[in-house]
Amino acid sequence: MSATADFVETVTIDTFDSLVLKSSTPVAVEFMSYGCEHCRLLEPVLQSVAESLGSQVAIARVNIAADQELASRFDIRGTPTLVMFLNGVEVGRAVGPVPTVSGVREAIVGTFDGDARS
Which domain of life is it from (predicted)? Predict the structure, then answer.
């Protein structure tokens, strides 16, 4: 196992509501699968974006293979899908975002622009 820090928190059906929907911080959730090649490419990018955003925006992941109920609840049709939540409400979505730091950062921060930093 890698000794590097994990800046993206894994959430499950049991923790989703408390960590995402009830969060006072904007939250971007990656709905992913460990068997998805695009998700694996996106992982280091998400880590970098999460580290750079610090406490400004929380980034979490849901493994849809383990939490199919959450994937169904949020109508996830493909992976990776980023869903942005603010005050418990979905405010944006990016399906298969370009796996670059600038592309992912813009997908996340652009959604919250004016909300996350006010």
Answer: Bacteria
Whether residue 22 lies inside any domain: the answer is: yes
Can you give the residue range of the structural domain that contains 75? 9-112
The number of folded domains in the chain is 1
8 annotated active-site:
no
1 is catalytic: no
Nearest by Cα to 23 from 68, 74, 60 = 60
Catalytic choice (8, 20, 39, 82): 39
Candidates 7, 9, 23, 36; catalytic one = 36
Distance CA 106, CA 91 (A): 14
Averages of pLDDT over runs of 10 residues in the chain (118 residues) are 73 97 96 93 93 93 96 95 95 84 87 58
- We report the CATH number of the domain holding residue 46 as 3.40.30.10
In a domain, 81, yes or no: yes
Give buried/exposed letters for 82-115 (b at 16+ CB in 10 A, else e).
Answer: bbbbbeeeeebbbeebebeeeebbbbbbebbeee
